[in-house]
């Protein structure tokens, strides 16, 4: 234990390095994932459209029938009795409507197809060489 305290008393920069490393770990484990999640939620709330099926933070499920951009609000219609309710956009928990693949998903699929085609071409070329 005395060796450790001697090391840190002689090398004060090591203490600073420990604090920097601790902050970096906390940033990557706590702060960054939380900010990414908030960004995704805000993007989801900004991309709602009329006809989307949503669930509110209170658990109310309905279909959006109007969006009021000036108030940052929307109106949903719920159930077979067609009750209409007005909510703020921050009250959206999830958008349940499947809108198909996003641009990022499309690009990922195209890259996967291109890799599969290259792999198939290489296999054909190897088969030709082996014959």
What's the structural blueprint in terms of helices and strands?
Layout: H1 2-10, H2 12-46, E1 53-56, E2 61-68, E3 73-78, E4 83-88, E5 92-95, H3 103-130
Antiparallel strand pairs: 1-2, 1-5, 2-3, 3-4
Q: How would you describe this structure to a colleague?
A:
There is one protein chain. The protein has 131 residues and is of the alpha+beta class. The chain folds into 3 domains: 1-46; 48-98, SH3 type barrels; 100-131. It has 3 helices and 5 strands; from the N terminus they run H-H-E-E-E-E-E-H. It has a 5-stranded antiparallel sheet. The protein starts with a helix and ends with a helix.
Characteristic key phrases:
131 residues, alpha+beta, SH3 type barrels, 3 domains, five-stranded antiparallel sheet, 5 strands, 55% helix
CATH top-level class of the largest domain? Mainly Beta
The sequence of SSEs as H and E is: HHEEEEEH
Beta content: 15-25%
Give the radius of gyration: 27 Å
Q: What is the overall pLDDT average?
A: 86
Any idea how many domains? 3
Show unreliable segments.
none
- CATH fold name of the largest domain: SH3 type barrels
Globally, the shape reads flat
Q: Classify the secondary structure makeup into a structural class.
A: alpha+beta
CATH architecture of the largest domain: Roll
